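sry for the spam today, last one i promise. struct tokens for design, 417 residues
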């Protein structure tokens, strides 16, 4: 744990599940190499000896690596840190991340050693990549400063439909004013919060370009309370109308937009056009994404945002489906904030394990806030890693088998009639 190269100081042992799956292991010249044969099922890794660590201190792991004939290094080349207590009981296993540094790919991860940890074993391996060669070099562990909290105060709202656009306009400003007094970092409003009235409003009448008097008024509130605001509007753009989520910054200006991709038939037949790409937004507290209502039923939507690095997914919606929303959080390991219409409780904040952290209690209060820590990690016992804790957010990304997903895209398989 002195930051020296582990390939010079640690004892490394080859490991494979079975002899017939074992690659060729080469430890020479301060490097570790794994040479796979022609068999696709080959799986092997080097394991270090026990490396003593200080309890509850963040550890920085880094390593260089190179590979030949590996189609997907993110999935086939891995380093894991396995933490054990003094009795050699497994506590936690974590993947190191692959990061780009000066044009080269490296492993890098800062992880706080779990409570009770006495030592860590580093595992560096390759799997399921036939006829490949993987080399690991310059592998280091060192303690670093405690990780600071990254706290974010989220407000989600519930507003019942009003009779006219004018009344909705006033109600939108009123709920932002109410929520803004609680000093949130971001306020989420329900889907089409301005256009959704008791009476039928033609799409062309409700739609507006962006910026508009509505986004200007919301922007004034955002600036007044130094908060981000996320609202959806029917946006006129280039002869089309989109159901658009607008992200308004603390300075009151529009800083991003996402156009709803999955349109229910009724919405499409009204004349709304779909968007064609997902967006993440780097706000001053972290990276976020937005999906809108019907998007929630297509798991590719939220998974794409998670793969793009979204730490919070915001979901303005008119349709209520608590189990789907909790599944989005659980299967991606991210926070989900929902603002709905189906009673106050349909506006909720969900943690990365799929548990409801808070929800709006009544229509008079009309909002709630929840302070979260984006550096907090969430574990599930025996989640993939065996008799210990695994972090869902990391595991679900590292262990996806993307080459098997061809049928997810209509363009990638033959339509059967």
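last one done:
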């Amino acid at each position: 744990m002195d930051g020296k190269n582990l390939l010079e100081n640690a004892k490394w042992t080859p490991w494979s599940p079975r002899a017939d799956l074992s690659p060729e292991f080469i430890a020479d010249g301060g490097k570790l190499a794994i040479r796979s044969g022609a068999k696709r099922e080959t799986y092997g890794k080097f394991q270090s000896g026990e490396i003593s660590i200080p309890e509850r201190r963040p550890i920085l792991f880094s390593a260089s690596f190179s590979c030949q004939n590996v189609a997907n290094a993110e999935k086939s080349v891995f380093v894991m840190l396995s933490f054990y207590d003094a009795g050699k009981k497994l506590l936690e296993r974590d993947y190191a991340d692959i990061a780009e540094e000066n044009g080269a790919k490296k492993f890098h991860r800062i992880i706080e050693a779990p409570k009770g940890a006495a030592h860590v074993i580093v595992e560096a391996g390759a799997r399921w990549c036939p006829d490949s060669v993987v080399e690991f070099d310059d592998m280091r562990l060192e303690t670093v400063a405690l990780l600071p909290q990254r706290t974010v105060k989220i407000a989600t709202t519930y507003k019942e439909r009003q009779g006219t656009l004018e009344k909705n306009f006033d109600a939108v400003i009123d709920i932002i004013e109410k929520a803004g007094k609680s000093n949130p970092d971001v306020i989420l409003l329900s889907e089409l919060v301005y256009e959704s009235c008791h009476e039928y409003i033609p799409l062309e009448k409700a739609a507006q370009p962006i910026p508009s008097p509505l986004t200007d008024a919301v922007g004034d509130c955002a600036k007044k309370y130094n908060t981000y605001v996320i609202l959806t509007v029917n946006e006129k753009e280039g002869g089309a109308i989109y159901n658009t989520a607008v992200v308004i910054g603390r300075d009151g200006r529009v800083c991003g937009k996402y156009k709803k991709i999955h349109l229910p038939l009724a919405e499409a037949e009204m004349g709304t056009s779909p968007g064609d790409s997902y967006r993440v937004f780097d706000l001053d507290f972290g990276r976020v994404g937005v999906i809108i209502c019907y998007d929630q039923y297509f798991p590719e939507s939220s998974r794409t945002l998670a793969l793009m690095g979204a730490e919070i997914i915001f979901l303005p919606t008119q349709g209520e489906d608590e189990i789907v929303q909790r599944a989005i959080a659980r299967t991606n390991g991210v926070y989900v904030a929902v603002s709905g219409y189906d009673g106050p409780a349909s506006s909720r904040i969900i943690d990365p394990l799929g548990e409801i952290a808070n929800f709006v209690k009544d229509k008079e209060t009309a909002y709630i806030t929840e302070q979260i820590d984006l550096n907090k990690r969430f574990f599930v016992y025996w989640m993939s890693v065996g008799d210990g804790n695994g972090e869902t957010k990391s595991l679900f990304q590292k262990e996806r088998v993307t080459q098997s997903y061809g049928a997810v895209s209509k363009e990638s398989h033959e339509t059967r009639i």
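The chain has two domains: 2-146, 151-379. ok im logging off now
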